[in-house]
Design a protein that fits this description.
The chain is mainly β.
Amino acid sequence: MKRTQLAVAVLLATGSVSAVAETYTVKPIPLQDVGQNTFARSIDNTGKMLSMVQLEFNPPVDLDQLVDDTSFFTTYSGTLEDEDDALQGVFTDADYTLVVNFLLSNQGSSIGQKLASFRTYSTDTTDIDLVPGLDEVTDQFDDYTQSVEAGGRDSVSGNFIVGDSPGVVVLDEYENEDGDTINYTYSELPQQAFVQTTSGTKIIPAVDDTLGGFSSARAVNQNLQVAGFSTVSFLDTVEEAIETCEDDETRGDIPEGRCYYSIYGGDFNVPRISSYFVTNSTNYLPAFVLSSEVNATIWQLDVNGDVISTDTFPLLFTPEEDDTSHYFSYAYDINEQGIAVGEALTGDAVTITRPNSSGLNESERVATVYRDGETQELLPREENLISQAMAINDNNWVTGAVLRESSDIARSRLFAYNLDTTEQLYPDGFFATAGVQANAINNNNIIVGKSDFDATSDTVRETHAFMFNIETEEFLDLNDLTPCDSEYTLLEAIDINDNDEIIANARVRSTSKYVTGADVISSEGETIEVDAIIAVKLSPTGGAIDDCSIDDDGEEVNDNFERSGASTSLFGLFTLSLLAIFRRKLKK
């Protein structure tokens, strides 16, 4: 095993590591002109990073749809700063922000423009490039429609990018039986796995592609093997619904495409094991997915991004023939040997008592390994309530989280497991009952993620980014390894490459912005400071370790020393909607 410079520094340090700093520099990803809140996704060995921007500045607005197909001007008549100008597509900062927030809340409507809350960008520390997913450039906006929430998830060699994306939102002009024209808007495809290469974006198809099927690409290795999951079969009810849509007599007075959307539309979300989950619930899975079986899938691509072969991995059990419940196996990561890891349902339920809640029945999920055509359970089931494998390196170390009870309350706990030696580690987080979530592991056997930082009784606790070195078994707060005067509080480390470079989410104080990019000014004529979440890159310095407990004059700093960025709460930041300028795009 290769011992990293950081590990050596820790071994040489005396006393607690909580006082050390300056082994990493922190640099924000250059997306400040795109959106106020940005979220880390991945970093590959070339240093290429993927980040998602929440609610981009100045998204395109279709004024005709806003006037004709929504209730905006009726709802906000008398509220707008300048309604006459707004009707002509000329908006004040506040009015434009109101428009965009209205459109973002319009996702469930059958008509009206749709805007995506998140989009992905590929970046280094200087340049940025959009990862559009299945979005398309249109003449109307002379740019992408920004209707597609494309999630880039992993990259290799700075070129091949994989992720998932719904189809572009189309405007379907339909004349109904009364002779009225209705402008239906809907995504033309359910969520699709995709690969983006230098030559463009291609769909990575699901095994069963009924109505396009459902698939997600989560990781890609140097051999261009893509790990994820996809539909392998559907219940007969899906085919019956399709037949209904294809029949003019049974479809109803709506276009055929909109009828198909009523079958496959919906949001997909399977939470980490730190959150409640039960399958067969539309709170987490769209009805389309609930009517299917989803299996872990590995696609082999060629250098052009085309699929050469597809391998799927079965469930951990065989359901009864008359069982119509939804079951899945998911793959989240893959190493260079082609071994993938993830999670799968067992078909059973388990009672879990989470913080500030009584015991509830949840779907039992267990960490899994996918190799040699088989789905293998990773950890002893009797030792954990549920488990989830999130990452694997080329040394066959697997990491993820298990849910175990402490004082009758279940919280997630870090695990590391070696497939070759069966060695297992279950280190504590920053304190004995801290909830811990692992996100990634590199080939230096360093795991990164987030851990509860304050031992409170709150359901949601403040978290800090951590680094765990399997060799030294040191569990370190990454905030203690950055400059003492850092303005950033590192909340979660998302990924780490083999150069020990890390991409993380940090909290920082920022000036509140309108969606036009202009500063929000208070009634006192001053800017308003708010907390923002931004993606940052951490780079090893190779320099000496500073001691934050000693000031420049050699005097001891108060024990309650807190870094300058660690001031206020994270809660509520993920729903911020006042954002900054990129460029205004209005078409009529």
